[in-house]
């Protein structure tokens, strides 16, 4: 059964006249997520009790201490209008856990990002994360009606100034250049081959961009589209409330047997200590590098028991199914655990 969390809004940031960022009073240790994922919010409704709407996380799990989503008011959008008119600091909202697959496999890749309007929201999360921890070049093509419609304008300017050799932002304003068409978008894509492309925005923009990328020779595997489909039902109807952080039962310590370099050693594993820290505290120099869950240098395999990871941006589902975890992000979940570095 899915769980939902009741989160308090710590701050509402007015990004433009019709866009607001909701900054929640919760950090990534409680709700870990990957760049480009989204939150599903429960919005009250006089007609049916509540509706569920998905909004992308504009915050970065590696640069921002708190989670944030950005919502743009639309003319016929009940939920977006309710949020922009009613949500303020102190408002409490129910949210499902972060979800979505619109996220880079590696933040070290060269990235070509296309966004239009509020489609910049997940793109911003990816962009900030890649600049903070990756090594590749990041190019953003951002389309809007006019200069006043540009969400995150100041922040993008600051990031460009801070990363002059790695970040290029190309603004496309309909009031100046007209609507971006496939030919113009393809000319832009032609200039950045061998990049991984991520696209988010209104359907006509995404369709034109996808065709432009294919025309420029991009492989299907290098084109990632964020499409939000209408929910068939309300997922909150079958969700259970998560245990409030302040009322959780105190977890018990586990016992872990770690085999590294052919030698097995057993330790008491405190519930709040990550595996890599436990090993270092006991004088074991286990493989590691970034300690942020994004490089896989500390990968090891759980052969008995279970762990939970605070953050994972590199291991695929097949890896997880085979028991592989990141020691720098792993916390104990069962009383007895065995880990192998072989």
From TrEMBL:
Name the UniProt record assigns to this protein: Ferredoxin--NADP reductase
GO molecular function annotation: 2 iron, 2 sulfur cluster binding; flavin adenine dinucleotide binding; metal ion binding; oxidoreductase activity
SUPFAM superfamilies in the record: 2Fe-2S ferredoxin-like, Ferredoxin reductase-like, C-terminal NADP-linked domain, Riboflavin synthase domain-like
Cited Gene3D superfamilies: 3.10.20.30, Nucleotide-binding domain of ferredoxin-NADP reductase (FNR) module, Translation factors
Record-linked InterPro entries: 2Fe-2S_ferredoxin-like_sf, 2Fe-2S_ferredoxin-type, 2Fe2S_fd_BS, Beta-grasp_dom_sf, Cbr1-like_FAD-bd_dom, FAD-bd_FR_type, Flavoprot_Pyr_Nucl_cyt_Rdtase, FNR_nucleotide-bd
Keywords: 2Fe-2S, FAD, Flavoprotein, Iron, Iron-sulfur, Metal-binding, Oxidoreductase
One Pfam family hit: FAD_binding_6
Source organism superkingdom: Bacteria
Domain (2Fe-2S ferredoxin-type): residue spans on this chain: 254-342
Cofactor list: FAD
Domain FAD-binding FR-type: 2-105
Organism (species): Saccharopolyspora aridisoli
């Amino acid at each position: 059964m899915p769980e939902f969390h009741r989160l308090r809004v710590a701050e509402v940031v007015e990004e433009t006249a019709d866009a607001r960022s909701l900054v929640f009073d919760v950090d990534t240790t409680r709700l870990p997520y990957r760049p480009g994922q989204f939150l599903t919010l429960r919005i009250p409704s006089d007609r049916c009790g509540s509706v569920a709407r998905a909004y992308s996380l504009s915050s970065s799990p590696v640069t921002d201490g708190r989670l944030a989503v950005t919502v743009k008011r639309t003319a016929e959008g009940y939920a977006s209008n309710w949020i922009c008119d009613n949500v303020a600091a102190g408002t409490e909202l129910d949210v499902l856990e972060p979800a979505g697959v619109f996220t880079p496999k590696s933040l070290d890749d060269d990235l070509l990002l296309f966004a239009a309007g509020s489609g910049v929201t997940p793109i911003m999360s990816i962009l900030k994360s890649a600049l903070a921890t990756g090594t590749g070049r990041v190019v953003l093509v951002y389309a809007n009606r006019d200069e006043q419609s540009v969400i995150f304008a100041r922040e993008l300017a600051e990031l460009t100034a801070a990363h002059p050799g790695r970040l290029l932002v190309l603004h496309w304003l309909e009031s100046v250049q007209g609507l971006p068409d496939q030919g113009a978008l393809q000319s832009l894509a032609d200039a950045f081959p061998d990049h991984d492309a991520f696209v988010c925005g209104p359907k006509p923009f995404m369709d034109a961009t996808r065709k432009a990328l294919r025309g420029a020779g991009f492989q299907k595997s290098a084109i990632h589209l964020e499409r939000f489909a209408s929910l068939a039902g309300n997922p909150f109807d079958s969700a259970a409330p998560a245990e409030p952080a302040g009322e959780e039962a105190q977890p018990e310590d586990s016992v872990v047997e770690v085999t590294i370099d052919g030698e097995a050693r057993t330790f008491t594993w405190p519930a709040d200590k990550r595996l890599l820290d436990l090993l270092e505290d006991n004088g074991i120099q286990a493989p590691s590098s970034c300690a942020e869950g994004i490089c896989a240098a500390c990968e090891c395999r759980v052969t008995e028991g279970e762990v939970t990871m605070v953050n994972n941006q590199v291991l695929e589902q097949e890896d997880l199914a085979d028991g592989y975890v990141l020691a720098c992000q792993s916390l104990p979940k069962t009383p007895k655990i065995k880990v192998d570095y072989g």
